Design the sequence.
């Protein structure tokens, strides 16, 4: 009985919320009528996979949706498999996809016929941070010193390990190179965990791992963060190691390395869906974001909790796409270039 | 002994009615997942991961959650052998090598013995690996840090050389099928430049050729085609259906103690590095064939040929959890999903996990002991049942196998194209067998081609094209040296015997 009450109360709240939005007044309430497929354009165990499966777990636990949700990994061709699947499902409201930066990088780097405009933006869940890490045994105390050392060593001497080829890690590396004029040897690995361990084992000089991929080694006293590629410092003030919290890590800009990069963790639907259908998922993920489990996940991964919807979200994606085209052009990462 | 104290503490955590029930559930589910080709351990664990999410919120719940998931993994490790032996269809990548002797054994009417040997040696391998984890984890965990790209390539090279150098097939046929395997493995995304290659503009080929689809086709469908040609009957129909077969096989097993030790060592090494269970099983099979007294009989259906790969696969599969826990590096696809699970539950795999989450870690280790015992009991009691499947008339079971294969192929990527590819691979498997080309090198190349290529090219990037990087330190040097030694062993022994005859 309580569940029913909660559900009724929940939908009443949702309806009031919708009434408050002028563009939603016309849209009639819609609900999934069969199992919803949640596609991950990446392999099992990665960051997108973790977030999608956590969301699925939260939805199931709090009974936020009447129908079931299944998570499907479609990682082939750097995620192209998943994006093409959603592109092909024009008008299907029972399919959603979580994105990484490969939303932009994959079509640009491989020439696979696909663009984010083929999809319907639903909601940004969060932005994933990138941090410049080195081994604690190295003498560099700041990003400035590290870059100076890389410059002094000359091109193709310092090794940057990263996840995937022509994806976010390599794009950040390229951005650093374009700004500083030095050149790193970029070595692509399969997963963020592998990358972190390569750095711990001193097989590389630096990485731009996400916080969650490297935090264990930071706390274990093997790695040290030099700077975060966010224009603002991270807000988390709880001590992670004995002396430092996430917010103690300077921004790269503060450290004289004016590069910023954040990775989209957002939800899209196929093209040709109705506003009511989009609104349903917007509400759903708002409820997910309100749960304590989600807040926990955000803090553990030190995510940037910016969460846009509607036109703001679409504009953000368009801006990011333009930036990726510019960065990748300069680095000659674009297919057929 | 600190470890024993902690381990006993772990048993206290694990030994609750709820956890034991979860253990049984996990093992049974895992065996089913392992039996069905296509639905691998990684998929099975991933599907159940969200379920454990609410479980992990309760006090002590993370331990229960990991017990459920890891038991699915153990179950899948056990279950993979069943279809390999009965129908020549590996349920999991690491049970491909089990088909080499397991299936001929079943055809001889000794399916029960093959299954018993497979399950028992799986158990032994796992036990050795758990003991290593229990007592040596701090030393061993650091070892994995020594492995950069050149070292990884040397390990893969060692696997290829151990398997090929030891092969009794004509060398050029082996080489030809292996090269075809490398070509198939190269389809899809280039790991270093990120561009697409060999896809010929087809979006179906984006994902490349999944190893499982190739294996289901080459082995499963190929075998059915052969059986069709040779008359519609299973050769193993006279299989004994008695539980006594277990005891009889157990009497035989102690003879292979040396193989067991060797295979456990290979398995633990490959698990910790982490190279994975599949290469471990191939390497162990190759090494056993060379060093066994009955080396010539390998492939004709002998128990030792089942013991070697199964011991190594299970040892590696178990040992793979160590780098996952201590470094956050998954040693296998399933370990990768488990790792994701830990992060979702709010645990941080890494050097501090053993300090901060003592209950969890030692609970998990204790559950490895218990889970494998439970697993052994579950699968052994089912041996007569599994063996009895062979008594079902071929005309009834063959369509069922075909359907299961098709479902398996479909499950891998939820794509009907893969089912067609499976049929193509089936015809290929049939032709290969008719022309007596070995399938194993092809399969090995498809499984490891990708990874070997990545680590080779990473090593070349790091060394800026200098090949001497493969001899640049003691570790990589000895691995490469050993690989070359194993590769040229047949040539050397030929030369040696010629020289002796000359004198």
Sequence:
């Amino acid at each position: 009985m309580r569940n029913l009450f909660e559900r009724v109360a929940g939908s009443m709240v949702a309806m009031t919320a919708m009434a408050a939005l002028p563009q939603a007044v016309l849209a009639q309430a819609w609900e999934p009528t069969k199992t919803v497929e949640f596609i991950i354009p990446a392999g099992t165990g990665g960051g997108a996979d973790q977030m999608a499966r956590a969301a699925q777990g939260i939805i199931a636990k709090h009974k936020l949706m009447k129908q079931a949700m299944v998570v499907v990994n479609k990682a082939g061709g750097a995620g192209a498999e998943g994006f093409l699947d959603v592109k092909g499902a024009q008008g299907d409201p029972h399919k959603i996809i979580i994105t990484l930066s490969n939303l932009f990088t994959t079509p640009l780097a491989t020439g696979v016929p696909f663009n984010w405009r083929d999809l319907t933006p639903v909601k940004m869940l969060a932005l994933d941070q990138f941090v410049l890490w080195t081994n604690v045994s190295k003498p560099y105390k700041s990003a400035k010193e590290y870059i100076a050392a890389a410059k002094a060593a000359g091109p193709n001497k310092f090794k940057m390990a990263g996840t995937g080829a022509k994806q976010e890690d390599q794009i950040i590396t390229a951005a650093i190179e374009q700004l500083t004029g030095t050149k790193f040897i970029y070595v692509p690995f399969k997963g963020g965990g592998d990358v972190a361990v390569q750095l711990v084992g001193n097989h590389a000089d630096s990485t731009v791992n996400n916080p969650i991929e490297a935090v264990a080694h930071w706390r274990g006293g093997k790695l040290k963060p030099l700077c975060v590629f966010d224009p603002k410092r991270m807000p988390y003030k709880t001590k992670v190691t004995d002396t430092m919290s996430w917010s103690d890590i300077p921004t790269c800009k503060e450290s004289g390395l004016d590069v910023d990069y954040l990775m989209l963790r957002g939800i899209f639907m196929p093209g040709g869906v109705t506003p009511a259908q989009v609104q349903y998922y917007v509400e759903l993920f708002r409820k997910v974001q309100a749960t304590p489990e989600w807040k926990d996940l955000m803090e553990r991964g030190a995510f940037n909790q910016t969460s846009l919807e509607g036109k703001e979200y679409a504009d953000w994606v368009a801006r990011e796409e333009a930036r990726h085209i510019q960065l990748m052009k300069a680095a000659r990462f674009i297919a057929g270039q | 002994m600190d470890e024993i104290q902690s381990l006993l503490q772990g048993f206290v955590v694990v030994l609750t009615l709820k956890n034991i029930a979860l253990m049984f559930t996990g093992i049974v589910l895992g065996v089913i997942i392992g039996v069905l080709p296509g639905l691998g351990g990684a998929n099975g664990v991933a599907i159940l991961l969200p379920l454990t999410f609410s479980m992990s919120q309760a006090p002590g719940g993370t331990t229960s959650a990991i017990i459920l998931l890891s038991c699915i993994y153990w179950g899948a490790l056990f279950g993979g052998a069943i279809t390999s032996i009965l129908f020549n269809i590996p349920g999991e990548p690491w049970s491909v090598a089990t088909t080499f002797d397991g299936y001929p054994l079943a055809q001889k009417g000794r399916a029960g013995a093959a299954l018993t040997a497979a399950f028992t040696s799986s158990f032994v391998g796992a036990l050795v690996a758990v003991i290593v984890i229990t007592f040596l984890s701090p030393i061993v965990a650091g070892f994995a840090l020594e492995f950069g790209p050149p070292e990884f390539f040397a390990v893969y090279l060692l696997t290829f050389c151990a398997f090929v150098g030891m092969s009794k097939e004509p060398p050029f046929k082996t080489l030809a099928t292996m090269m075809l395997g490398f070509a198939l493995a190269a389809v899809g995304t280039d790991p270093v430049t990120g561009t697409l290659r060999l896809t010929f503009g087809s979006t179906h080929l984006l994902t490349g050729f999944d190893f499982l689809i190739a294996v289901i086709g080459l082995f499963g469908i190929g075998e059915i085609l052969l059986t069709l040609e040779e008359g519609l009957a299973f050769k193993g129909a006279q299989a004994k259906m008695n539980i006594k077969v277990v005891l009889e096989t157990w009497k035989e097993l102690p003879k292979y103690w040396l193989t067991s030790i060797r295979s456990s060592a290979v398995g633990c090494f490959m698990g910790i590095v982490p190279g994975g269970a599949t290469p471990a099983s191939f390497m162990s099979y190759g090494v056993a064939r060379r060093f066994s007294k009955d080396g010539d009989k390998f492939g004709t259906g002998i128990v030792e040929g089942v013991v070697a790969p199964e011991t190594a696969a299970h040892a590696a599969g178990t040992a793979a959890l160590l780098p996952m826990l201590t470094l956050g590096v998954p040693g296998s696809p399933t370990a990768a999903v488990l790792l994701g699970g830990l992060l979702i539950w709010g645990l941080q795999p890494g050097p501090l996990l053993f300090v901060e989450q003592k209950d969890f870690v030692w609970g998990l280790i204790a559950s490895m002991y218990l889970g494998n015992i439970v697993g052994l009991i579950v699968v052994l009691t089912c041996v007569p049942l599994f063996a009895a499947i062979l008594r079902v008339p071929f005309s009834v079971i063959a369509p069922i196998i075909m359907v299961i294969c098709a479902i398996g192929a479909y499950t891998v990527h939820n794509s009907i194209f893969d089912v067609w590819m499976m049929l193509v691979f089936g015809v290929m498997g049939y032709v290969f067998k008719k022309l007596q080309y070995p399938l194993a090198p092809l399969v090995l190349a498809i499984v490891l081609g990708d990874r070997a290529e990545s680590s080779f090219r990473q090593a070349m990037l790091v060394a800026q094209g200098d090949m001497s990087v493969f001899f640049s330190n003691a570790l990589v040097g000895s691995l490469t040296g050993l690989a070359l030694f194993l590769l040229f062993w047949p040539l050397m022994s030929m030369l040696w015997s010629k020289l002796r005859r000359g004198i």
Summary: Strands of chain A lie at 36-40, 69-73, 95-99, 119-128, 131-135, 159-163, 185-189, 206-207, 223-228, 263-270. The longest strand of chain A covers residues 119-128.
